[in-house]
Write a structure and sequence with these properties.
3-stranded antiparallel beta sheet; 3 strands; single chain; 134 residues; 3 helices
């Protein structure tokens, strides 16, 4: 997204992140990233695994599998809604350290913490503690 504007023009930008960037070399030996890249190569070989939409699909499919596993053979609307609205600190591969998924009947937002990051020398550099999205 920053390339069209020019990476040199993007220096100093501040943003947030909740997931590991598979293109970032600091994660190249990370088990989650290796698993994600292997999954993408096997199931979506024609797609760019660095695409945010592919990564979001991966995260969503992991959560759906988690909910279905918890539901067992009780695949009713009510049971699936009950499980998905009561997730508590679910660790999802590719989320940054310290970020888990928690939902409540009043808050379906699956990501509630973020890592601040600053664009420096052509890459995003994390800084500070996790911040709440609430």
């Amino acid at each position: 997204m920053l390339k069209p504007a020019g990476l040199e023009q993007s220096e100093g930008l501040i943003s947030t992140a909740y997931s590991k960037d598979p293109a970032d070399r600091r994660w190249e030996n990370d088990d989650d990233v290796r698993g994600y890249l292997a999954w993408a190569k096997e199931y979506l070989p024609q797609k760019d695994p660095n695409s945010d939409s592919i990564l979001v699909g991966y995260l969503a499919s992991y959560l759906m599998a988690h909910v279905l596993e918890k539901a067992g053979s009780t695949l009713t609307h009510e049971n699936l809604l009950e499980i998905s609205s009561h997730l508590t600190q679910v660790k999802v591969p590719m989320l940054l350290p310290g970020i888990t998924v928690t939902t409540t009947p009043d808050n379906y937002s699956v990501i509630n913490k973020f890592q601040l990051q600053k664009f420096e020398s052509g890459r995003w550099v994390p800084f500070g503690d996790l911040v709440s999205g609430e």
